[in-house]
What we know:
The protein is of the alpha/beta class. The protein has 20 helices and 20 strands. The chain folds into two domains: 13-296 and 559-568, Rossmann fold (3-Layer(aba) Sandwich); 300-501 and 509-554, 3-Layer(aba) Sandwich (Rossmann fold). The protein is globular and about 80 Å long. The chain binds pyridoxal-5'-phosphate.
Amino acid sequence: MSDWKSFTHEPKIAYFSMEIGLSTDIPTYSGGLGILAGDTIKSAADLKLPMVAVTLASRKGYFRQKLATDGWQQEFFVEWKPESRMELLPAKTLVSIENRDVKIQAWLYRVKSPTGGEVPVLFLDTDIPGNMEEDRRITDQLYGGDLEYRLKQEIVLGIGGARLLSVLGFTIKKFHLNEGHASLLTLELLAKARLPVEDTWDERASWETRRVMEQCVFTTHTPVEAGHDRFPYPLVKRVLGEPVPFPLLQELAGQKELNMTVLAMNLSRFVNGVAKKHGEISKSLFPGFEIHAITNGIHPFTWASPYFVALYDQYLPSWANEPELLVRVDNIPDEEIWEAHSGAKAYLFQYIEETTGVKLDPEILTIGFARRSATYKRGDLIFSDPDRLARIGEGKLQLVFGGKAHPSDVPGKQVIQQIFKHMDQLRGKVKAVYLENYNMDVAYRLIPGVDLWLNNPIRPLEASGTSGMKAALNGVPNFSILDGWWIEGHIEGVTGWSIGPPPTESSLTANDSKEDVNDLYSKLEQVILPLYYDDRPGWIRTMKNAIGKNAYYFNTHAMLRRYVTEAYIR
Length: 570
Ligand SMILES: *Cc1c(COP(=O)(O)O)cnc(C)c1O
């Protein structure tokens, strides 16, 4: 084991993220944002990029989901102990919160690649003797608590994270802010960027601001104004104090309240959205900013089921570190693609039987839908007309669901209840199950094991979406609203199918649910079911196209190469 100090020998890109999903047993993630962060770090290790990641220890995790018989969600802590699997780094740092010093320590986790690359991940932790009880809880619960709790977490992440890197001896070339949660780090950089000569206030501020901008890269993930973290200034004054003069803070972060996205945009030279469409949406949300687009990806080796790993290893050796090779998927015989898929399906069905008691039929077309249960994702859309669904799908369709709602998102929880209600109504006609506690482990079985991956968000709210990329990698075609990454990955009838109208500018926010629902049902009935049951070679061709035309490109290796050439080395 190399000494941790070796990590500080060369300058690094520091990747800051409130959540990072590396594996199920490090439960410090809630959904797509965290998984993306974890996948990014894994690709960085594969590619031997000089990176270090900074996140929170979240000792009580996000939560474990249980569902009552009526589908109502209950939440339980997932206590985990960083000390059981990480090394405590010897340096500590302090941040000022409500005018008192709060000590921060960091746990080191090493993400190691078979290529020999290694990326350190620092999990920040305030659970230290000497801190007030209240402060020891700051790094407990991911996205828990109120606005004040959130602000304290973001002080620890942004300011604490930057200070800790510095006391540990890291030299940082670029700070990459994965979403606005870490934006306060720009204030720390600003406070340190002192113009060497005395000058007028204005001159100094603009010189210092430019210097910080050179160091920062910001990725925004949310296409709605309400999704960005904002804090009222009285709260900021009381909890954070005044790390930079107040008029300057207001100029950089918003006059009325501290908007973390605006702060990051104003202090980052490179700003990007997570798909082409999302880049455009972000430009309209923040006029005047130059906003690029680098489409998200997934880590190939992590998300390929063991069945496809074996197949790719045999026919496309070194695919895992060179996923472009998946473009040559036609070298794999059809029967072997089908066999691998059948293996993944059986593996999922066994899990479903063990956890729910429901026995699904491997011969029946099975649709999967699992992601955070936020209302815009419309998890219950397929039940809009239960009679029609029963008519189309009786004996020909099975449904598998999964997903957690944020603990305070009551409408999101009600969507799960609705799904339960409809599953009940369709009993005897269309078999359906809802898998509890959707996490990386469940995703790893669920996504490769279904035949078709459904995604029906309200446009344009799915900034990118990544679960569909995991499906494609396992030969599972997407059936999705034209939003996020699917606008770029979709070729109708070739890589999968669209739902609803094209994503034209004029219908940017128009959402005709009726049109979406109608298209969903009619395409299912007239195109997808006949192809699956009557033209198996045609179906397998679609599976191969999902691999060769989607998965070869929508991965974090390709994504990171773009970050390097377009953002990091500039
Ligand atoms: C990939 C993944 C997500 C993201 O799913 P989207 O459909 O992109 O929202 C969320 N949760 C888990 C556990 C995942 O593995």
